[in-house]
Each structure stands twice: as structure tokens, then as C-alpha cells.
Amino acid sequence: MSERVGQVDGPRELAITLAITALRREAPITDSLAAAFKDAGFTLALVGGPVRDAILGRLGNDLDFTTNARPDATKKILSKWGDAIWDTGAAFGTIAAKKGDVTVEVTTYRSDVYDPDSRKPEVDFGDSITGDLGRRDFTVNAMALELTTDKPEFIDPFNGITDLALRILRTPGKATDSFSDDPLRMLRAARFMSQLDFAVEPEVVAAMSAMAERISIISAERVRDELIKTIMSAHPRLGLSLLVETGLAAKVLPELPLLKLEIDEHHHHKDVYEHTLTVLEQAIAQEDRLGGPNLVIRLAALLHDIGKPKTRELTPGGGVSFHHHEVVGARMAKARLKALRFDNHTIDDVYTLVFLHLRFHGYGSGEWTDSAVRRYVRDADHLLGHLHVLTRADCTTRNAKKAAMLAATYDSLESRIAILAEEEELNKIRPDLDGNQIMEILGVKPSPLIGKAYAHLLELRLDRGPLGEEVARQELLTWWEANSTK
Fold first, then answer.
1. Domain range for residue 133?
2. Domain shared by 345 and 479, yes or no
3. Whole-number Å distance between alpha carbons of 180 and 133
4. Reported pTM
5. pLDDT digits over 90-107, tens only?
6. Distance between CA atoms of 236 and 242, rounded to whole angstroms?
7. Does 371 lie in the same domain as 324?
8. pLDDT, tens digit, for every residue of 331-365?
9. In a domain? residue 275
10. Do 365 and 469 have their domain in common?
11. Facing residues of 320 across strands?
């Protein structure tokens, strides 16, 4: 196949038209970038994901280009063209720049050689765009649009445009060679499957299954980043299912495949794995309540039942129980997210949601006291909205009558929370006396006992609602009489 395709018809002609139209509409300043490279005697081509996205009508403001210019020459050109420039990737041939709202990365043609024990390549600069495209992960990312010719040229040596039309992920060469070079590409297959709603070629799936163990050379941070992109995509079930099917999930998120509990003819219960994916989808459907796509709620939905395999017990009569799986699961979620190097804030929030996700089921049909409702709000704290979403998403029963009852019961709980919040400002629950007032009334200096006194007054506040300062003062003195050392 010719390296450069100028006069093309059918899908290729349409691809050129779509890509150029999107580029000029979303990032017209790239015309001046192409002119700058051409004037300096170099080539410049839009490459990879941005070409794919331009054809699909989803081009963003982060654009990747490839050139025959070496990094030093690229840096000189971008220094004159851009508002700001970064050369931290120069060793790998990449110089980045920003102009207006557009960020560009321009990389010299590369022909990499990989160390089998590392995903970091020994970088060799090349002179052929075909060679550069051949080292890329998937054919749909191995297309380029040459911008420094008289007429933009579509370059597609691996027939990526056909795979794009067929919505399938295929590697430019042998999948086993590609994944041996860079095992992270296996996780990227799951990510693109979820983001683009694409299928994966059987050869690619087979290679992922055969080479799953190789993912161990990838750092936890890079695994985390790919998992986040998969989970935050439009169709996370697709990518997560692929990871489980190929055995990769057992290496990077082992709690997920373990949810496929054995179900025998005598002990029937819902499929926890399928239930989990359904809860994730139902949580996503409610994310507008949280302002849009939300990583914490998606992680909590994905991990909320991971304590079940460890707590599963068969009960007389053909039943099964998972006592305290929320407690065990919360600890497991924290451990997994720590291992994946998530930030502490995300870890703590997911831990709290997993720990609390069963609390609503103690509500019965609405028998909770005002004290119990206050505690529900207090324990959820800033995650109350997330807990509402997770709890509703977790009600996945196929029994329509039961589902309607659960929804109505939760509607009732939310209404009670709203009423109490209006009356008592639940989101600002504090004891009726602060620490300084406690010390003044008792005539003592700061000590651990003051913290205990504060906690006692907080419990009273949760149980009985606002007490007022005078009643709180009497309760404090009564408690002090019983608890202070004489």
C-alpha cells in the first residue's frame, strides 16, 4: 500500500473531509503551525487519536502531531509560534506548546526498541511516517493527516479507516509483539472499547489473555490512570468485562472477577458480578444529581460489594448471607485504592460510601427516628448526595413491586432529611456548646476529657435535636459530675 494517499475516494475521501473540517473548525490556528514547519523545510502531520476523533466528530483541544524535524528544530519553531512551550519530553522526541486554548505535542518520527523488562523504549528517530505509525497501539490510532503538502494527504498504511468504520480495535502488526513491547496497550484496548463502544478483534483478545501476566511490569500509577479512563468512559461495562474475560482484571483489580461467586442448584442468589456492573450503570444514570461524571461514585459502585466473597455463608434452607460485607468491603476498597496510588481524599470517600451503602436497609418501611435520620446525615457528611445515588443504584431487584417499594421508601427518607435539614440545618450539626464554652463552664483547661464532653453533647444533639444552651449546660454538668476525677 502506498505510504501517501492523495486522490482517494469513498471512506478515505470522506475521512479527509471530516478531519480537515473538524480541525479548521475546532483548531484553526493549526494552519499557522503547519505553515511554520513547512517554511522551515519540515513536514507536519496530525496523527493518532486526534485524527480518529476528528473523523468521529469528537476532536478536542489537545492535538498530537508528528514531524521529520528533530526535537531541537521543533523547539525553535514552537518557541516562535506558541504562547508557552515545554520540552520535558525532548528525550523521547516530544516538544509541547500552547497557543490560545489549544495544546499541541509535536514528536519526531520514531522507531522504538523495547527492553523486555520495561515499557520504556530505547528511542530511535526515524525518517518515515509509515515506520512511526507502525509502532502505534491500534490501527484506528495509526492514521495521519499530512498538513504541509499542497493538499492535505490522508496517510493510512494499516487500513485504520476501515477498522474505524467497522468499529473494531486491531493492532498494526502482531498483537503479541505490540503487547510485548508495551503491556499498557492491553489496558488501553479496554479503555478504547469503553470510550468508543468498539469491539476488539479476537486475535487481540487472545493476545491479552496469553500475556496478562506481563502487565506486572507496568507501574501502579499508569494502571490507575488507564482504569480511571475506562471507568469514567461512556460504556465502562465493556472495558471492565474485557479485563475480566482476559484475566487482566485478576492482575490489576482482582476483587472484580472474584465477584463471580459459584451459584449451585440449592443455594440461589443474584450474580454479584453482574449486579455490580448494573449498579455502576445505574449510578452513572443518576450522576446529574452530582453535577456530572463523578469518579468517587463510580468507584464506590464498582467496589461496594467486594466484601461478599470473604463473608459468604450458606444458610439452612438454601439461602446465603454476607454478614458485615460492607465493613470488610470498605477495608478492601481502601487497600486496593492505596495499592493503585489513588489520592487520600478519593480513598477516604470511597471507603465511607462502601461502609455506609447498607445503612438504608435498616430503615425498614420508614420507622427510623429523627435521631437515626440525623445520624445518617451526620455519618454521610459531604457525601450525602453520593450516598443517595449509590443506595438507589444498589436496588437492582427484578421484582417490580419490591423495586417500587424500595424507591418509595427512599423517597420518604430523603423527604424527612429535607424537612429536618430545613428545621435544624443538619449539614451543620454541632453540639449546643463549643469547646471554649465547655472549658469556661467547667473551669478547666484543654484536656482529652474536654473532647469526651464535646462528644457527649454531640450524641445528645443527634438523639434529641437542638437542646439550647441552658439545657446543654445542665446536661454537661451532670455528665461532668459522673465522669470527672475528684
1. 10-166
2. no
3. 17
4. 0.81
5. 888 999 999 999 999 999
6. 10
7. yes
8. 999 999 999 999 999 999 999 999 999 888 776 66
9. yes
10. no
11. 314
By DSSP bridging, strand 313-315 and strand 199-200 are unpaired
User: Is the Cβ–Cβ distance between 388 and 342 less than 8 Å?
Assistant: no
Half-sphere exposure (CA, 13 Å, Cβ side) for 19? 26
319 lies in some domain: yes
Cell of 49: 487519536
Cα–Cα nearest to 112, from 166, 178, 60? 178
Residue type, 313: E
158-163: long-range pairs with CB below 8 Å, 24+: 158/133, 158/134, 159/1, 160/52, 161/11, 161/12, 161/15, 161/55, 162/11, 163/138, 163/139
Q: Tell me, yes or no, whether 288 and 377 share the same domain.
A: yes
In terms of domains, do 359 and 478 share one?
Answer: no
| Whether the Cβ atoms of residue 417 and residue 426 lie closer than 8 Å to each other | yes
Considering the domain architecture, whether residues 437 and 401 belong to the same structural domain is answered as no
Identify whether 220 is part of a domain. no
pLDDT tens sequence across 95-144: 999 999 999 999 999 875 555 665 565 567 878 899 899 989 999 999 99
CA dihedral 475, 477, 478, 483 (to 10 degrees): 120
Scanning the structure block, which residue is given the C-alpha cell 445503612? Answer: 359
Name residue 131's amino acid.
G
Residue 200 CB contacts under 8 Å (≥ 6 apart), including other chains: 168, 169, 189, 193, 242
Which residue among 166, 181, 211 closes a domain? 166
What region, left, alpha or beta, does residue 438 occupy, with left being phi > 0 and alpha being psi -120 to 50 degrees? alpha
Do 253 and 227 meet the contact criterion of CB atoms below 8 Å apart?
A: yes
Sign for the CA dihedral angle at 247, 251, 256, 261 comes to positive
Domain of 411, CATH number, reads 1.10.3210
- Report the amino acid identity of residue 289: R
Q: Give the residue ranges of DSSP H helices in 40-90.
A: 49-56, 71-81
Most confident of 41-50, 123-132, 260-269: 41-50
What is the rounded distance in angstroms from the CA atom of residue 190 to the CA atom of residue 200? 9
pLDDT given for residue 51 in this prediction = 93
The number of folded domains in the chain is 3
For residue 77, pLDDT over 50 is answered with yes
Candidates 155, 147, 146, 153; CA nearest to 34 is: 147
Q: Note whether 29 and 156 are same-domain residues.
A: yes
As given in the structure block, the three cell numbers for residue 164 are 474505524
Boundary (domain end) residue, out of 382, 408, 426: 426
- Does residue 76 sit in the same domain as residue 108? yes
Lowest mean pLDDT among 40-49, 171-180, 312-321: 312-321
CATH of the domain at 125: 3.30.460.10
Residue 15 inside a domain? The answer is yes
CB neighbours of 460 closer than 8 A, spacing ≥ 6? 431, 467, 472, 475
The x, y and z cell numbers of residue 461, run together, are 444533639
